[in-house]
Model the fold of this input.
Amino acid sequence: MFCGPATVLPPLSQYIKDVFTLKHSDLLKRTISWATADTVKVVSASNILSMAAAGGISVWIINVCAVVLLLNVFATASGDALGVKFGYTGPVGPNRWGSLSPTFSACSSGKSQSPINIVSDNCAVNKKLKPLIMQYNHTEVATLVDNGFNVGIKYGDNAGSLIVDGKTYNFKQMHWHSPSEHIIDGTQYAAELHLVHFADDNTIAVLAILFHLGHPDPLMTKLQNKLNELARDVATQKETQVQLGTIDTHEIRKHSHKYYTYTGSLTTPPCSEIVSWYILGKVRSISREQVEALRAPLVSTCKRNARPVQPLNGRQIQMTQKLKIIYEYALLELGEYISSAIA
Done:
């Protein structure tokens, strides 16, 4: 059984857009599908342009009743990669992602891919980098989801935002990888939490928190019963999501002063290179049992869901100051979800 989306694509009507005003450049950035009487065929923008050149369709005027724009970047970040199965081992593993779908080509041909190995001595100190401002709301209804390739939490429209150098990114979801995807000075950690934020221009800011094995993580402690419920439901093919009710996202609102940052990509297909990464300088603690709980709902080929590190290709990693990875061994208060980047 392969990894990949555990959920069905939303109704096509949700993706219908006004395509009559699309520019040529817009088409190049999107995945286009069209519906016939009984099927939906997904093709890349380049395929559409080739067909147009051959007289198959018009690039400039397309029947809105027949064409559906699939925003594949948002679909993947929401736990759905256009229905294409991918995993972390075998014929659908990371080395093959680029060949699984035309929309995944960046996974093999991209030059700004993630994750990476961060070598502290090679990072550039940028004293002009400002603290990351997390303005998360006090309450928000949330859903624990088995995405097939990871376990995450989806939030509604008002979960809060991340402000980076005056630019606002809306907080949409967070998910875990184990082991960690980013590596610091050659060290791979037990887990990595990604807090995913979208800006109005469809760019993404991801806040990454690394975890070493040790004391239980307070957030995971609060989620333990729901994680167990999710694993049982997935095993019996009942549900792939569990309602969490109200999560106090205000508890994770902190100003983060010390971090690494670079430009990169999504770490799952389609590997789109539109992500600003912020890896916090403090490594948190998570128990072995909690790591196992994160892996329990996933199929065997996704238990270790970390993409291998990718080449820098000349990119420069910046940091707020010379950082030493700081471990937090003290037990945090149970009510604290995620504390500040550096004490």
Summary: Residues 5-75, 327-343 have pLDDT under 50 and may be disordered. Helices lie at 24-29, 45-53, 72-77, 97-100, 106-109, 218-235, 288-295. The radius of gyration is 20 Å.
